Amino acid sequence: MEKRDYTFPAGQPAAGRALAGVVGSGDLEVLLQPGDDGVTRIVVNTSVDGKGAVWDALLARVFTGELLPAASIVINDCGATPGVVRMRIEQAYEDIQAEGQP
After folding, report:
1. Please, are residues 12 and 60 in contact by the beta-carbon 8 Å criterion?
2. Which residue, among 30, 53, 34, 24, has the nearest Cα to 43 in the 3D structure?
3. Is the pTM of this model over 0.85?
4. What total of structural domains would you count in the chain?
5. Distance between alpha carbon 18 and the CA centroid of its chain, in Å?
6. How distant, in Å, are the alpha carbons of 30, 75, 101 from that of 92?
7. In 3D, which of 73, 67, 65, 63 has the Cα closest to residue 95?
C-alpha cells in the first residue's frame, strides 16, 4: 500500500461534493469536496507500489494549465490505468458542475 500527497494551484472552491467510481478490481474511486480558495490537495491511496512517477506525471497533466475549482480530493486506487484515473477525476468535476446548474 502506498500513499502520495499532492498540492496544485486552483480557482475558487468547488461548488459541492462528488463521488466517482468504485474501489474494486482494477478500478478506483475519487472523493471530491470543496477545498481552500486557490489550492487543490490530493491524497492518493494505492494498492500498487512503485508507480510514483506515473502518478506524478498524470496528476501534473490534469491539474497544470487551466485552473480547476479548488478541492480536497482523495483517490482510493486498486490498480486503475491512467486513463481511468483521469476519467474518474473528470467525472467528479462534471458532477459538481451539474449540481450547480438549475
Report:
1. no
2. 30
3. yes
4. 1
5. 10
6. 7, 11, 15
7. 73
Find the domain containing 82 and state its range: 2-99
Cell match 462528488: residue?
18
- The three cell numbers of residue 77 are 486506487
Q: What are residue 75's DSSP bridge partners?
A: 30, 44
Query: For 28-75, what is each residue's pLDDT tens digit?
Result: 999 999 999 999 999 999 999 999 999 999 999 999 989 999 999 999
5-19 per-position pLDDT tens digit: 999 999 999 999 999
Residues 40 and 30 sit within 8 Å (Cβ to Cβ): no
- The whole-angstrom distance between residue 85's C-alpha and the CA centroid of its chain comes to 8
